[in-house]
Amino acid sequence: MKEYIKGANPYMPLWEHVPDGEPRVFEHNGEKRVYVYGSHDIEKTQYCGRNYVAWSAPVDDLTDWTYHGVCYETHYDSVLYAPDVVKKGDTYYMYAAEHCGSFIVVASSKDPWGPFENPVETKLGFDPGVLVDDDGKVYAYWGGCAAPCYIAELEDDMATIKEETLVSNPLGHSTCPWDPVDDGHISLIDAFFEASSPRKVMGKYVYIFSRRYEKPIPELGVFEDCNGFLSYRFADTPFGPFHDGGDISFNGGEILRDSEGLGTMTYRWGNNHGSIMEINGKWYIFYHRHTGTTEYTRQAMLEPVDVAMGRDGKLYIGDIKYLGGEPVASVPVEMTSQGPHINGLDARKWISAGYACHIYGSSKNAYIRPSYEQRDDVSTPVVNITGGTTVGFRYLQFGNNTPEKVTVVLEEPKELIINVRIDSYRGRIVSTLESDGRDVWLCQSLNTGVIGKHAVYFEFILKDAGETASFDRFSFD
Q1: What tens digit of pLDDT does each residue of 99-125 get?
Q2: Of 285, 300, 331, which marks where a domain is finished?
Q3: Is residue 1 part of a domain?
Q4: Count: domains in the chain
Q5: Can you tell me the distance from the alpha carbon of 176 to that of 212, in angstroms, rounded to the nearest whole number?
Q6: How far is residue 5's CA from residue 199's CA, in Å, rounded to a whole number?
Q7: Does some domain include residue 91?
Q8: Which 8-state DSSP code applies to residue 161?
Q9: CATH code of the domain in which 47 resides
Q10: DSSP codes joined into one string, 244-307
Q11: Phi first, then psi: what are they for 340, rounded to 5°?
Q12: 130-183 pLDDT per residue, tens
């Protein structure tokens, strides 16, 4: 029986909806694993839910994620926003964001998967992020939306702020026109928005955050206010001063560029939250994407990133450009379907359409329909496909032997033609499938050989311009 791809992008099962994930590598009982604790989009009509769940993977295989179950339930009958978890000594501390992030408590556990219990009230605020430094000192970072960011050192109880260390607004806050900061703090365009995450990288203190852009970024297809970015600044001390680094991640999908360098997004961007982590000698950015038609069904994503230090002491994180071996610039890494499958998704397994990172050209705003059905073979289809829509996957691995045929499964029969293209949504056609509208299973031979790693796109041509189609999954054989 043909297997389904798992651990791609999103790397948790397609039925799971965990955004805001802060990755942590913990060694527990002699085993090193990556743990992710995100808020949990289970309310469906608003952000997040009333519990947190824990997932982990071995450091040598980020495609193999284990569900540890609920690790924290709300203690105040409230919706929980983005948490963070750190370890100090032999205890794990979870900073739980009760009351939609307005009331932060710290709970503890002797196990990294929880349960986290005995919550203690803190004076931290929205989107807390915590750093346990090499010398054992603990620093908290928080703030967001209409509130500026803050930094403070914590007492040994992991809850109490050392008031004399409190620093206000070290990054400058975005203007937030719908809810402006009115407490005398300076507001800036293209500045901190939310999602504080402090990390220590190459001896530098790195402040990762969601940046809100209020100016166009034509090369990325951004022409309106946008906070789909994860960005960073860095300093020599935990409190700054911070120097601008750049953007690490953008969740707008594959960016198509024209001859003048203008970009077009191929995925619906939305808010972003996450962080970087070095795992088994490689760096990754953990972030989230949006499915469905709202911002309430987000899913956990990751991409490899490059990290380098320039001779001038500038820290580069992202897709780094080098000149003569010296880092000179960095841009956001691309959003992919492969995630931790860094050599590409196995083209001979079933690949759900829900792994698409490119959905382009639909006149009815095609999207990935969420599922909450907890099955290993669950697939989340791309729906609202109209004539001219392309659905793309970056990247697939075909190996050294070209497949003979491609199979596409629709949700319901439609009279249509599907061109299978490689490398670009306008790239070479390697197969054409045609349906008379009587079957959901379409199978066709390839008209040319395909080996190695390629992006793959499915171009839909519907016989009836008023019809829509739903694309469930595909495979090569």
Answers
A1: 999 999 999 999 999 999 999 999 999
A2: 331
A3: no
A4: 2
A5: 8
A6: 32
A7: yes
A8: B
A9: 2.115.10.20
A10: EEEEEEE-S-SEEE-TT--EEESS-------EEEEETTEEEEEEEEE-TTSSSSEEEEEEEEEE
A11: -75, -10
A12: 999 999 999 999 998 767 899 999 999 999 999 999 999 999 888 766 665 555
Cα gap 341→5, rounded to integer Å? 10
Of 336, 319, 471, 473, the C-alpha closest to 396 is 336
Q: Do 397 and 320 fall into the same domain?
A: no
Residue 12, classed as helix, strand or coil, is coil
Asked if the structure places residue 70 within a domain, the reply is yes
> Of the candidates 195, 198, 211, 188, which has an alpha carbon nearest to the alpha carbon of residue 240?
198
Distance between alpha carbon 115 and the CA centroid of its chain, in Å? 25
**Bridge partners (DSSP) listed for residue 132:** 138
Q: What is d(CA 377, CA 387) in angstroms, rounded to the nearest whole number?
A: 28
Expressed as residue numbers, the domain containing 362 is 345-476
**Domain identity same for 303 and 421:** no
DSSP string, 18-82: --S-EEEEEEETTEEEEEEEE----SSSSSSBSEEEEEEEETT-TT--EEEEEEEE-SSS--BEE
Q: Return d(Cα 352, Cα 382) in angstroms, integer.
A: 9
In Å, the largest CA–CA distance within the chain is 73
Q: Are residues 352 and 262 in the same domain?
A: no
Note whether 372 and 15 are within 8 A (CB).
yes
Q: What are 164-170's contacts with CB under 8 Å, separation 24+? A: 165/239, 167/239, 167/240, 170/207, 170/239, 170/240, 170/241, 170/242
In angstroms, rounded to a whole number, what is the distance separating the alpha carbons of residues 458 and 353? 10
Indicate whether 309 and 446 sit together in one domain.
Answer: no
- Give yes or no: residues 42 and 182 share one domain: yes
pLDDT in tens, 203-224: 999 999 999 998 899 999 999 9
How far is CA 423 from each of CA 58, 453, 477, rounded to the nearest angstrom?
32, 9, 19
* 124/154 same-domain check: yes
Q: Per the structure block, which two tokens stand in for 257? A: 């560029």
